[in-house]
Design brief:
This protein is of the alpha/beta class. The chain folds into two domains: 5-224, Spore Coat Polysaccharide Biosynthesis Protein SpsA, Chain A; 233-358, no CATH class. It has 14 helices and ten strands. The protein has helices spanning 15-26, 46-56, 72-81, 100-110, 148-154, 173-178, 191-201, 233-250, 258-277, 279-284, 287-297, 303-309, 314-328, 333-358, and strands spanning 5-11, 33-40, 60-65, 86-89, 95-96, 116-118, 121-125, 130-135, 169-172, 213-217. Strands 3-2-1-4-9-6 form a six-stranded mixed sheet, sandwiched between helices. Strand 2, helix 2 (46-56) and strand 3 (60-65) form a beta-alpha-beta unit. The longest helix is centred in the C-terminal third of the chain and has 26 residues, at 333-358. The radius of gyration is 21 Å and the shape is globular.
């Protein structure tokens, strides 16, 4: 019988956490699930523990792969192997809340067939030694459904990102297959590239507000082990390049809502301005390194970037001109940095004035 949930767990060097992760799955009262453990070559006992649990319960299956530095390959392979109606992505150092699968099943059964069910997460910060509470991007009293484009427009009010993070969303498996949705292999921070595409392509988005996922922030995780500012610049260049190409494709389709370009444009150009030209980035990352990674983003020219920037404010268009100048003309790189120092000073002053006015 086909399981209701397929839980895909990328595992690499997570031996200290994997038992807790898998116990949280095995301890669920709801039993219609399979758990696919994607074990990459590890320096610890991750594979040994995974196989120990697979021997205990036939619903747990192990597949292996070479070390890649990213969850992407395991997530992609696991999605291809999955038999469940819905897919949950659970990292090997995280857990799911007690009896949460039953609650998710009941809520989904009451509103069946949506492509995405954004939920909430509980954040457990091992670095700070304190829990951060529950994160839910959608207003607690929102009980409706949205199309993907409507959901993208609603993200304008999100504080952190233009999409729910991948782990806090339950996906209809057929939706992922129909749209060929995969993470870019080897890419860290893959949520930021995968989730905006998935959200836009969804025909039905049904927020559930269920805080089923317990997300651990730890020192040795891929997302928190960066060696200083700029560690992920190459990844961010690949992410933004892919998203610009996605926007260029879907914005040419009939019926595209131009307001979506504005939402994406503000976020994605903001990433470029901040990661490459914020005062902190200019101070801490060598100019040559920033020019190198920005060159990855614009390796084939500026078409996708120009298409996104064109309808934006005059200030943003001027800032975009300086981004192009930084990439194209070595002699103007110092001047571009001076422009952005002034740009961020003005932005901080504007935010301060707006905060004072609200008070």
């Amino acid at each position: 019988m086909k399981p209701f949930f397929s839980i895909i767990v990328p595992c690499c060097d997570v031996a200290p956490y994997l038992r807790e992760c898998l116990d949280s799955v095995l301890g669920q009262a709801f039993s219609s699930w399979e758990c696919l453990l994607g074990v990459e070559t590890s320096k610890d006992d991750t594979e040994k523990i995974a196989r120990e649990y697979a021997a205990k319960d036939p619903r747990i299956k192990v597949f292996t792969g070479p070390r890649s530095g990213s969850c992407s390959a395991s997530r992609n392979t696991g999605t291809g192997m999955a038999c469940g109606e819905y897919v949950i992505f659970l990292d090997g150092d995280d857990t799911i809340a007690e009896d949460s699968l039953r609650r998710l099943h009941d809520m989904i059964a009451a509103r069946p067939g949506a492509d995405l069910y954004p939920c909430a997460i509980q954040v457990r910060d091992d670095v700070a030694g304190a829990d951060e509470g529950v994160r839910d991007n959608y207003p607690a009293d929102f009980a409706g459904e949205l199309s993907g484009p409507e959901a993208v427009l609603m993200t304008e009010g999100f504080t952190a990102d233009v999409c729910p993070m991948l782990q806090m969303t339950v996906f209809r498996r057929a939706f992922l297959a129909e749209n060929g949705l995969e993470c870019i292999k080897g890419l860290r921070r893959q949520d930021s590239e995968f989730s905006p595409r998935a959200l836009y392509l969804a025909k039905r988005v049904a927020p559930l507000h269920e805080p089923f996922y317990i997300y651990r922030i730890r020192r040795n995780a891929v997302g928190s082990s960066a060696k200083g500012r700029g560690y992920f610049h190459g990844d961010w260049a690949v992410i933004i390049r892919s998203l610009l190409a996605f926007h260029e494709k879907v914005s040419a389709e009939p019926g595209f809502d131009r307001r979506i370009s504005a939402v994406w444009g503000r976020k994605w150009t903001g990433w470029i301005f901040w990661f490459w030209f914020s005062p902190e980035s200019i101070r801490e990352i060598p100019r040559a390194r920033r020019a190198e990674t920005l060159g990855i983003l614009f390796a084939d020219g500026f078409g996708g970037f120009d298409a996104l920037v064109r309808p934006m404010s005059r200030t943003k268009r001027i800032a975009a001109w300086w981004v192009r100048a930084f990439v194209r003309r070595k002699a103007l790189r110092g001047a571009a940095e001076l422009f952005f120092k002034a740009y961020f000073r003005m932005a901080r002053a504007r935010r301060g004035a707006e905060a004072a006015e609200r008070r």
